[in-house]
Amino acid sequence: MKKDKIFGIILGILYYVLSAIFYFYLFIIEALAGSISDFSSILFYICYAVLPVILLAMPLILKFAFKKKFYKSIIYSMFSVIIYLIILVIMTFGIRQYFKTFSTEKWSNENWNSFRYLMIDDLEDTYDLVGMTKEEVRALLGEEDVELEWLITDYAIGYSVRNGFMDWYYYYIYLDENDVVVRAELNYWG
Over the stretch 42-69, which tens digit does the pLDDT of each residue have? Predict the structure, then answer.
């Protein structure tokens, strides 16, 4: 066998084994804790199911369609994987940056409840909740979506702000007997 063929076979085995393991763990991590999966299920499947399959097929496509040597196709494919990772990082960063600013529309969108925790700092910096009435809070944040029977009080409202695989975050707003906010806090249950 020629050195190019042996090198191509070894490089191919490494590429396919390591890439498959890498994509599997990347998929699991994103499914459990990610932001792309929370943002859009279609985008999640494109980024974590369709593109990895294409990237796994890339060396064969380059070899047969463009008549490249197999080891060169593997090397070009590795560059594609690096570009893929850069795009994923940029998308994740962009989604997180978008949700760092509070707006009633973003907060009220039930498809994006898992991003509310990112908005809390901006919400608290922009609006002083303490002193607001219950109705003013509902006008700003919408109807509460967390049942608070365990608090044994009528003086609190709650919002789900992050529902992860094994952890949940809630934003509780505590009221006095006149339905005026006395404090708000982020609570973790996990």
Answer: 999 999 999 999 999 999 899 889 888 8
List phi, psi (to 5°) of 169: -120, 140
Domain ranges of the chain: 3-98, 104-189
DSSP 40: -
Tokens of 101: 């600013």
DSSP string of 74-126? Answer: HHHHHHHHHHHHHHHHHHHHHHHHHTTS--HHHHH-GGGGGGHHHHHHHHHHH
Place of tokens 């795009």: 87
Is 161 within 8 Å of 113 (Cβ atoms)?
yes
pTM of the model: 0.79
